[in-house]
Design goal:
The protein is α/β, with parallel strands linked by helices. Helices cover 44% and strands 23% of the residues. The chain folds into two domains: 195 residues, Response regulator (Rossmann fold, 3-Layer(aba) Sandwich), CATH 3.40.50.2300; 161 residues, Response regulator (Rossmann fold). Strands 6, 7, 8, 9, 10, 11, 12, 13 and 14 form a nine-stranded mixed beta sheet that branches. It has a five-stranded parallel beta sheet with strand order 2-1-3-4-5, sandwiched between helices.
């Protein structure tokens, strides 16, 4: 009788083990990121947010389900991005594509996602038109139009009549330029000139001198977040633009949190528009920053790229938990298209199902010193902002 009971128990254990093995599965996610090139700093911020979310939430995945990240470097180069994405799809057979810093890379990869029916989750690449390239693209970050239009409108409301735009000469810079111009002129202002400088290793001084010579009421600036922000603002100081009376406004890219210590006093008083402010006292934001500090222990500073990647992975985890890890590309993009969350560090967010585009609060922030440190502080909130470019340019049916 004892042997019979043992046999039954061993058989049951074996059946459970077999069942667990049969149900065990790995979700392969292809990460396309700028680990090298002029956007490597931004890529590192995005990577840290994604990795932190996985580390702090992987225990919540369904039993037997795990995530495998297959990482590839696009070097901030569209052709490289296209090649590595193709490799991830055909050789690695990933179920999702995730990341991408540079908009030109996003635009190059988007058609591949559509052809293979592998959803592409953009956690930075901000060019407005990218989500229209393929129905398998969804964005959890932002577009420059979401920030540029409110910044232009806010500037016009200050009574400023003339402006100059100065932006990096590629997709997000062009979008930011067009967005600010739309908002500012709609409010009665006039843009005197639109300046563009090279995206990599620019010499800001000639462009800043042109701003000073024109003496506009306000200058709208856009550079890729990172060291270029410090370089631009130091050129503004060295050439005396602000002391001559010109105000400086921007999107959040000019005053990213990880660069504020380097920017220092030259950033004091800059007004920017963005989707996240580290000083916000939202419970979800405090929890995110506490997790960040525990993990990185003062060796890294979170910024908006970190938060956007965190939220992108939150969306992926919600999909996996909802489907128990079993989904097709079509089912995944359908789920993403109606996703929403009230647990983001930046506040309530959702995806516009018609455009697969993020809808979120836009915060007008002022950079100022508090307790001896330069920080961004919210001074106004515009709730539930859709991408204005898509509103102004409806998709053809």
């Amino acid at each position: 009788m004892l042997k019979s009971t043992q046999a039954i128990l061993l058989g049951a254990v074996a059946a459970i083990a077999f069942s667990a093995a049969a149900n065990a599965q790995t979700i392969k996610i292809g990460v396309v990121n700028s680990y090298s090139g002029f956007l490597a700093q931004q890529g590192d911020e995005m990577e840290k947010g994604m990795d932190l979310y996985i580390k702090t939430h992987q225990a919540n995945l369904p039993p037997g389900v795990k995530i495998e990240l297959v990482r590839r470097d696009d070097g901030a180069n569209p052709e490289t991005g296209k090649r590595v994405a193709q490799e991830l799809i055909t050789r690695e057979r990933v179920q999702l594509l995730f990341g991408i810093v540079a908009s030109p890379v996003g635009a190059a990869v988007a058609p591949l996602a559509g052809e293979a029916k592998v959803p592409l989750i953009l956690t930075n690449a901000a060019g407005s038109a990218i989500t229209r390239i393929s129905p398998y693209v969804v964005r959890t970050s932002f577009t420059p139009w979401q920030f540029g239009v409110p910044m232009g409108q806010w500037s016009a409301k200050q009574g400023w009549k003339t402006a100059i735009t100065a932006v990096s000469d590629f997709i997000p810079g062009h979008d930011a330029e067009g967005a600010f111009t739309h908002g500012f002129t709609e409010g009665g202002g006039k843009v005197l000139s639109a300046l563009r400088f090279p995206p990599a290793n620019p010499d800001f001084a000639p462009f800043v001198q042109r701003i000073k010579d024109a003496k506009p009421d306000v200058a709208f600036l856009w550079v890729p977040a990172g060291a270029q922000a410090s370089g631009m603002l130091k050129a503004i100081r060295d050439l005396g633009v602000r002391t001559a009376g010109t105000k400086i406004v921007a999107t959040q890219d000019l005053v990213p949190d990880e660069e504020l210590a380097n920017i220092g006093e030259v950033g004091d008083g800059v007004v920017s528009a963005g989707n996240w402010t580290s000083t916000s006292d939202r419970p979800a934001n405090k929890a995110f920053l506490a997790a960040w500090e525990k993990e990185y222990q003062g060796k890294a500073v979170a910024d908006f790229l970190s938060v956007d990647a965190w939220d992108g992975m939150d969306m992926v985890f919600d999909l996996i938990n909802q489907t128990k890890g079993k989904f097709t590309g079509e089912e995944a993009i359908k789920y993403f298209s109606t996703w929403k969350s009230d647990k983001s560090p930046r506040g309530p967010i959702s995806i516009d199902p018609a455009e697969r585009e993020i809808v979120q609060n836009v915060y007008i922030r002022r950079s100022e010193f508090k307790n001896g440190k330069l920080v961004n502080t919210d001074i106004d909130t515009i709730p539930d902002v859709k991408d204005p470019w898509k509103v102004l340019n409806p998709a053809k049916k």
